[in-house]
Design a protein that fits this description.
18 helices, 4-stranded antiparallel beta sheet, 9-stranded mixed beta sheet, binds S-adenosylmethionine, alpha/beta, Alpha-Beta Plaits, 44% helix, 458 residues
């Protein structure tokens, strides 16, 4: 990479970081809007710098506040972001200090701030000199790289695990695949990967999952275009098998609703492992995301009925025929997938949780009316917060006499990966390399004759 190209990548990374930190843009959107400004070969570095600088935001800001003697003007906030990008490289990446300093200083010129190039130079050189003194965290935020409210909430909800959760959130997530078992088993796909020189392993308890030793571009994966494999965290893969194998295995021609389906990861899995006569309706309220469901299904060669609709308003789209199984992969804070989306730490607010819980309850209420007697609704979030998980499902069970929890996991190996909650189960982020997911299977009683049947019966 030429010096100019190296400086450009750092300048664009600083603009991406600034877009998230100062303007509240999502990291995915900021990358999508800026990625084309650097050469294709430099995009992996661009992502690494942007993700890393946001993942370590509080620690880097603590260091910046120590080494910048005079506060930057509001209109020069992008230079603050550039310093974060520079410090991240010095502290976390194996790039020689002198190269980082020279390219980051040059990046200030790319950002049309030539007068601040000297300040960037002085600050980075000072950090290289005083590294140890500058590194001491000043508070819990800079120690754990999370906002205070998140540290507090995770500590309250997980008094024995909060530190492990925060540490896991600061790691880079592994890349997981899901073998399309209509085309090849996970073991067969593992062999194909090995033949292609790609190292990977299986995980006990999640039968279609394959974990790559190193992330790969999807086009490097054997059979990706043909649909032999998909990218999906293994914790997310628990949904389809739980709903189909554990809850609906006895039924023929089961009618299943995937209520919050886009981009269709779990829809595709349901169709891959479900019986040929499975009738699947995929619903999502975001018109713009609907197309991603059909694209995903087309690639794996499966089909479902897909509609854009508000799942909490069945009167607008439901034909009145009950579903045997419903997957509610509810919109949530995504606090279980911070490893993949470090901007969540900056964009989410404590006050979001109450509003999310209201939507989650509204979805549960509406979907319950569409569930057939003895059918199962699997409530899923990628959150670790009780306010979106067992508090929502617990309240639902208390207020619905016809609802019981089906806590019998037929796949015993999954037990080892999960924590039992008052209602439902939690996979904590980082457990066996998995994302954080919450699952609760709610079953509808058949009134009146089943009223006294104990839960173990189901
Ligand atoms: C966690 S994502 C679903 C991920 C998806 N199940 C998968 O595995 O690929 C939540 C989805 O819920 C959708 N959503 C939010 N509120 C909704 C509503 N009221 N009705 C239907 N979909 C909704 C969002 O557009 C988003 O696509």
């Amino acid at each position: 990479m030429t010096k100019s190209a190296g400086a450009r990548v750092r300048a664009v990374a600083a603009e991406i970081v600034d877009a998230v930190v100062s303007r509240g843009q999502s990291l995915d959107a900021a990358i999508a809007a800026n990625e084309s400004r650097v050469a294709p070969d430099d995009r992996a570095l661009l992502r690494m710098l942007s993700y890393g600088s946001l993942r370590h935001h509080w620690r880097l800001q603590c260091w910046i506040d120590r080494i910048v003697s005079k506060a930057l003007r509001k209109r020069d906030r992008v230079i603050n972001a550039l310093l974060a990008v520079g410090l991240y490289q010095i502290a976390e990446m194996r790039i020689p200090d002198h190269a980082v300093v020279s390219e980051t200083v040059e990046a200030a010129r790319h950002l049309q701030r030539p007068k601040l190039a000297g300040l960037v130079n002085a600050c980075l050189r000072r950090f290289v000199r005083e590294r140890i003194a500058a590194c001491e965290p000043r508070d819990e935020q800079s120690e754990w790289n999370h906002p205070s409210w998140m540290i507090e909430t995770i500590r309250k909800d997980w008094p024995d695990d909060w530190q492990a959760i925060l540490s896991a959130n600061n790691d880079r997530a592994p890349m997981w695949l899901r073998a399309n078992t209509r085309e090849n088993s996970a073991q067969e796909y593992l062999d194909r990967l090995r033949d292609a020189g790609i190292e990977a392993e299986l995980i006990e308890g999640i039968p279609e999952a394959v974990r790559l030793a190193e992330p790969q571009a999807v086009l490097n994966l054997p059979g990706f275009v043909a649909g032999d494999v998909s990218v999906q965290d293994a914790a997310a893969q628990v949904a389809a098998s739980w709903l189909l194998c554990d809850s609906l295995s006895e039924r023929t021609a089961a009618r299943v609703l995937d209520a919050c389906a886009a981009p269709g990861g779990k829809t595709g899995h349901l169709l891959e492992i479900g019986p040929d006569d499975l009738s699947l309706l995929a619903v999502d309220s975001e018109e713009s995301r609907i197309v991603s469901i059909s694209d995903n299904l087309q690639r794996i060669g499966r089909d479902a009925t897909i509609i854009a609709a508000d799942a909490s308003k069945p009167e607008q789209w439901w034909d009145g025929v009950p579903f045997d199984g419903i997957l509610l992969d509810a919109p949530c804070s995504a606090s279980g997938v911070i490893r993949r989306h470090p901007d969540i730490k900056l964009l989410r607010r404590a006050s979001d949780l109450a509003g999310l819980a209201v939507s989650q309850q509204a979805l549960l209420e509406a979907l319950w009316t569409m569930l057939a007697p003895s059918g199962t609704l699997l409530y899923v979030t990628c959150s670790v917060f009780a306010a979106e998980n067992d508090e929502v499902t617990g309240q639902f069970l208390e207020s619905h006499d016809d609802a019981i929890e089906n806590d019998v996991l037929q796949n015993n190996n999954i037990h080892d990966l999960m924590r039992r909650k008052a209602c439902g189960y939690q996979i904590l982020p980082g457990t066996a390399g998995l994302d954080g997911f919450y699952y609760a299977a709610l079953q509808k009683r058949r009134f009146p004759e089943d009223t006294d049947v104990p839960a173990e019966h189901f």
